[in-house]
Amino acid sequence: MPGKRITDHQVHKYKQHRNQLSQVAAAAKAGISERSARRIEDAQSLPSQRAWRNWRTRADPLGTVWDSEVIPLLQTDARLNAVTLLEELQRRHPGQWDASVLRTQQRRIRLWRAQSGIEREAFGAPVKLEGFTQRKTQRHEGVGCFASRTTPLPNEGGDPAAAAGVALVFDLNKQCPGCAPVLFGT
Description:
By secondary structure, the protein is an alpha+beta fold. The chain has three domains: 8-49; 66-116; 132-185. Helix content is 35%, strand content 11%. The chain has helices at residues 8-18, 23-30, 34-42, 66-76, 82-92, 102-116; strands at 132-136, 143-149, 166-170, 182-185. It has a four-stranded antiparallel β-sheet, with no helix packed on it. Strand 1 and strand 2 (143-149) form a beta hairpin. The radius of gyration is 31 Å and the shape is elongated. The chain starts with 7 loop residues before the first helix and ends with a strand.
């Protein structure tokens, strides 16, 4: 199948079938192409024993403008989309880039954002409950604490008991280790 690496198991399977079948039939039974079968017959080692390629197979199409044009645009607005940036490059340099460069640009933008992009806001930041007292409870599994308002706020109807604030913090570490506590309030 294109795009998938050949495993050691497929190589062993191919070599077993190759003893009795033709190259085409053995490759089909192992789930690889005829071209891969020819490559396996010429290879001296299994795929897991070969070194990984660490070089580029072609020149970087965005190398000439990445530092001079794309990074300044990203520093201006880090939320710019790769499609928008490609359209801007196509507008500035007509006929130089086509849509085939889009995936390369998406990869480079993702890498730039991971290394030097804007920091994202923390999700689930702690909430300070002013005017609440905290009481521990073991009544229900997973409930970490119960907090109630010491001085209830009057509601529109004037009934302070109906407007008392209540908050529960559920400790989900028992159900989901590593999860943040969930806060519900009224």
